[in-house]
Amino acid sequence: MTTPLVTVLEPVAGAKASVRASIDRWRIGLVLVCALALAAGLAVVEAYPVGVVHDDAMYVILARSLASGEGYRFLNLPGTPAATHFPPGYPALLALVSSIAPAFPANVLVFKALNALFLAAAAVLIARFARWRAAGDIWSLALGAVTAVSIPLLVLGSMVLSEPFFLALLLLLLPALESLIESRTSLWRVAGLGAAIGACTLVRSHGIALLPAAVVALLLRRRWRDAVVLAVATVGCLLPWQLWSAAHSGRLPAPLLGNYDSYVGWWVRGLRVDGVGMIPATLAKTVPEALDMLAVLFSPLRGTMAHGATLAALGALAGVGGWSVRRRMPVTLLFLAVYLTIVLVWPFNPSRFVWGIWPLLLMLVIAGAHVAAARSGSFTRPVCVALLASFAWVVVGYGSYELRGARGSWWSSIARANTRRIAPAVQWTLANTAPNEVLAAEDEGAIYLYTGRASVPVFSFTTAQYLRDHSAAENAAEGLGPILSAYPVHTVVVGSRKTVDAADFLVNSPTPRLALRADFPGGVAYTVLPK
Question: Do 315 and 455 belong together in one domain?
């Protein structure tokens, strides 16, 4: 007796239909994630001025310099010196967009809207990456949706900053590097990926963490030639920028080196001054700040015990998640290890750097929960229950944080606060200074962009200033005083307590350098006295 052919084919046809339906649901889910991220990214585009965090104004200034054919220069500083602080990738993109965007300041809204596209790309890419390497469809789509509306990413995306662009490039590159580790390919492709690492580093210097991550992963598989080709291609891509930086670094007055010279030079100068003790001193600040930030974002309750429980839950989930993907994501895990090490030994508040790779950290947490839900690996039922309870705890905490952030429009909190200082300073400068005058200003980038006046900073930026509080006398001696000696400044415009105190110190010193000129809402202006 034979089985009718139709009876055999029916289950096969049903299975194919089920697969097609699953693929269709996945694609629809990705479209929805993309739409959600695009809507969220555009919703936070607001007409606040550029310059609210210093770096955003510098990116626009450098983009203007490139677009106008003046090279890569800080146009706000007298003499327009060569720029060696910010890598040129993001300013080059803004310069390209400037060719089709309205003139300043209308183009600022276009630059911010561009971040919405990067957020949408990041949300889709992290969902695809997680589905491929870490979790199932539903978990991965949930990760994409959370990425789309994450307050940390919306904070970065609401300003003209390089992090959204960097994140999109990173999430595009990591899957390709994981594939490279899994299977051999042509040397041309290896070289292309090395150049891509270089390009990513030219957007944000932290991208260099990809190089040791990929090289170590290749060396562990005894692929010596691929490791060398990858490294040479990366170095070759970065070499012109490094030569430019080396040729033009160290030429500015000492107080400007922190914000206008190379990052590595800034860190090395701090190490020379403070010795190797700078590293443990930095860790003593950055580690608690990073942990406090995570506890605040993920804890459903306040208090030391609740925050401790939250950090333990996050650590357990991320640890299990990382262990579960260690063979499928070796480059990603090595990248995170190198990246976070750089962040923690860098004398600066780590939150912005951690937020720049936020979806990758969320992915590890979700991977840990996915392992527990699927009861994969060697975990016992009580362990899985504990992990799922931990996941529920942090989901409630992060969800409540997101709701509070949405109600308070936290993505624009930095811009709102600093606009109250910048807008009056710009108005006062336009009304009371000459177009060819050189100003020292707390928000020198914004002053230049909105008034056209050459402008220099009013304070220095050193590693020691992060590690300990400085008095007004120290800030004046290390920053404003030497700046007034180095540049032909006629007027000083400041607004925050720190900079006003430093200026007042120079007003009241035995040999006054400044005289009070005007006190306006949001700021104070001073006239520079002759020596």
Answer: no
